[in-house]
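Q: Hi! First time doing this. I have a protein sequence and I read that you can turn it into a structure. Is that right? Here it is:
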Amino acid sequence: MNFIEELTWRGMIHSVMPGTEEQLNKEMTTAYLGIDPTADSLHIGHLVGVMMLKHLQRAGHKPIALVGGATGMIGDPSMKSQERKLIDEETLRHNQEAIKRQLAKFLDFDSDAPNAAELVNNYDWMKNFSFLEFIRDIGKHITVNYMMAKDSVKKRLSGESREGMSFTEFSYQLLQGYDFLHLYQTRGCRLQLGGSDQWGNMTTGTELIRRKTGEENVFAITCPLITKADGGKFGKTESGNVWLDARYTSPYKFYQFWLNVSDADAEKYIKIFTSLPKEEIDALIAEQAADPGQRPLQKRLAKEITIMVHSEDDYNAAVEASQILFSNKAGEILHRIDEDTLLAVFEGVPTFEISREDIENGIKLADLLVDKAPVFPSKAELRKLAQGGGFAINKEKVSDAYAAASTDMLLNDKYILVQKGKKNYFLLIAK
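A: Yes, that's right. Below is the predicted 3D structure, encoded as structure tokens:
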């Protein structure tokens, strides 16, 4: 597999330094990608870079994931209008371990293959580097004129931000450049991967290596920043980032995010975020064009990426949960799904708190849903709807408005889903 060709047809190449492809064709090449450790989970904005590393390893080259512990303490000015908050070492180490667990789903860290992936943290080689040593041994090789010419610096100094730019942030590109130099000297790393917003920092690294060691054969590849067809920001929802950790974004919500992308985005994303071969993707694109209503691209994209990030069981549970509103086995599914998925499926529906004691004492549904939780304005309306087949508890129709409630009705030992008519849902929370 030719790495550059693979990334090219997948739409994952923005810039390639001359000579990169020749280097990759010549020998197994070590390449690294920097990852920001400011959270203990990656989000889907990180996935383009991670997939670059995955394809690199598939092509027989050696990937290094660099957790930017030192640089993460400073903050990259690229594409940012404000300086970020700094993080302490304990948080940094916790985040690093969490990120490695996630990366292990994409990369082979554990085999004895010569191109097994490695995880490194630049804090480990920066923490004992004195300021005087750094400016003497590294700073003297890169001129201020060179650093000022970078777009990330020019934008911040041109008045787009009232806060200007601190010396801390100005020095960022030198620190990132030193990472490349260090990995070149200690691991023979000759290639850096990153987003197109990183090009300035990456070329500082290749320049530093050339000036410090005289080595010319070091390279950089950037991928485009992912956008949505409608111009909106990729990876953001109303509730924030789409995370890879189930604690922050449930597998159901993760699956739904990919299932609901537009047709244009699905065609682009399935190339970037899966390892499916070109022939299979082309067949799915043709299938989508023939019958867009079936949405084969979105379904396959959501399946592949949910299994890769979570598991096949999580994918199956997400598909099942997605069918709750339409399935004739909805009652069974409701009693089976976990609390997070239940709340995600019915996010936004009105909720009422009720007394668990009332449920245990067998309160009549009419009393519960009119007096205790005002789902219905009157018992007469509830009775009429129940007799007409328009009232359901946990997706199972109830014809007797005066039937007794019971703890068997509680989903996850806590919730009751009430349906009024075809589309109106209410969630009762027993406390």
